[in-house]
Design brief:
7-stranded mixed sheet, 0% helix, single chain, 425 residues, mainly beta, 35 strands
């Protein structure tokens, strides 16, 4: 296309609809026209009964354009002869490129996207309703290197576009009522559209999963394949989870209620008042439980309040007991004949912080001796018949434990079966 000696390179454009499109450059150099601005108006467009419409069209410009500050392209509309409303404005983008771009900030400069020879669809929503719509395009360019192209203008009925957020959640008293417990998962679905923009978060998927800790309103703007948009919002009400704290009640192993006990001693574990309780281990559903652990054990409870929200706490009960060590004699483990021979009772190993008491037939013999992290001998030596054992006591907690092994000194007058072919006395 040649306009007064200037070539309009229409073959460079791509993305147009059909075989023809409308383009121009250097308006005031056209022989029959001395105006910089040209315009085209479409009149008599029937819109009775429509209230949600969108304009869409293809727009492009030469890749080597040199838009100036007074160059612009406007698309405007009016309903029933009213005031013209500007829907789309393309201005020069400040900078070295001098491209034309959409003035999204409405301040007289183009921003984004920039127009190129690859035509792109642009559009805007038409507000209001009436019977007749007019559309107008106004373009002003004044130099051979200021080229523009438009194509496929159309008006889209967006009344059937209806954003509607649905949700699923299984938290709280009732499922899918929009009332959840803090941190629970809620699935939000915006329906089937071409694109999505969620807030808060900025997600662009049809379905999002959220875990709000406070009451939050979620909104989504959906766009149809034709470019129509609609917005919906949904509030998710969040109830706080109960705060639960296990209270320990015990009077064992030194300091009371510190969660350190001697093996098998009783401990009461309790929590505040809630609607239901579930303890582990054991499965009790009571507010208070009584336990007698013989080894260190962790207990936990999950409580539920009136809103159906759960809270959990755990408590370890430490069982304090001296480490197992073995009683023997310097002559071996016996049994021996109580024939007057003195026997040295010996712990093969001991632990510091533990006191070891020798017993004969359950009765204390002598004074306890302190552990040294080595073997120790009891004094004095023993000659009397009986069964010798050792009870260990932890100095810090007072917890006791029977040590491994025993030594038997047999009364010569007693009849003892020591096994086949074995004689004690």
């Amino acid at each position: 296309m040649i306009i007064n000696g200037n070539t309009l390179n229409y073959t460079d454009y791509t993305g147009e609809s059909g075989a023809q499109f409308w383009a121009g450059e250097n308006h005031d150099d056209i022989p029959t026209n001395d105006a910089v601005e040209l315009s085209v108006v479409w009149t008599g467009i029937a819109i009775t009964g429509l209230s949600n419409m969108k304009f869409a069209g293809l727009f492009g410009a030469d890749d080597n354009n040199n838009f100036e500050s007074d160059d612009q392209l406007y698309v405007e509309y009016r309903i029933d002869g009213g005031t013209w409303t500007q829907g789309l404005r393309i201005e020069r983008i400040p900078g070295a490129s001098n491209d034309g771009g959409v003035d999204t900030a409405d301040e007289g400069d183009g921003e984004s996207p920039a127009l190129t020879e690859a035509m792109q669809e642009l559009g805007f929503n038409i507000t209001g309703s009436g019977n007749t719509l007019e559309l107008r395009i106004r373009v002003a360019v004044s130099s051979p290197d200021e080229e523009w192209a438009v194509d496929n203008f159309r008006l889209i009925d967006c009344s059937s576009i209806n954003a509607n957020i649905t949700f699923t959640e299984t938290s709280g008293v009732a499922n899918n009522d929009g009332i959840t417990c803090a941190g629970a998962t809620v699935t939000l679905n915006a329906g089937n559209f071409a694109s999505y923009s969620w807030s808060p978060g900025g997600a662009t998927d049809q379905i999002i999963m959220v875990n709000p800790n406070t009451t939050t309103t979620y909104s989504v703007t959906v766009t149809s394949a034709g470019g129509c948009t609609d917005t919906d919002s949904q509030q998710i009400t969040v109830n706080p989870n109960p705060s639960v704290n296990i209270i320990v009640d015990e009077s064992s192993a030194g300091m009371n209620d510190d969660g350190i006990i001697c093996s098998g001693d009783p401990v009461n574990l309790s929590v505040g008042s809630f609607d239901s309780y579930s303890w582990s281990p054991g499965g009790s559903s009571m507010q208070m439980i009584n336990v007698n652990p013989t080894s260190t054990t962790g207990y936990s409870v999950t409580v539920t309040n009136a809103n159906g929200c759960e809270g959990t706490d755990s408590q370890s009960i430490t069982v304090s007991a001296p480490a197992a060590q073995t009683l023997t004699t310097t002559d071996g483990g016996g049994p021996f004949c109580a024939d007057g021979t003195a026997r040295t009772m010996r712990m093969s190993d001991t632990n510091t912080g533990v006191n070891y008491q020798l017993k004969r037939d359950g009765i204390n013999v002598g004074s306890p001796i302190a552990g040294t992290n080595n073997g120790v001998n009891f004094s004095p030596q023993q000659t009397l018949a009986g069964s010798y054992t050792v009870e260990a006591t932890a100095a810090s907690s007072g917890c006791k434990a029977d040590m491994v092994g025993s030594v038997l000194l047999v009364d010569p007058a007693a009849s003892v079966d020591a096994g086949p072919n074995d004689e004690v006395c």
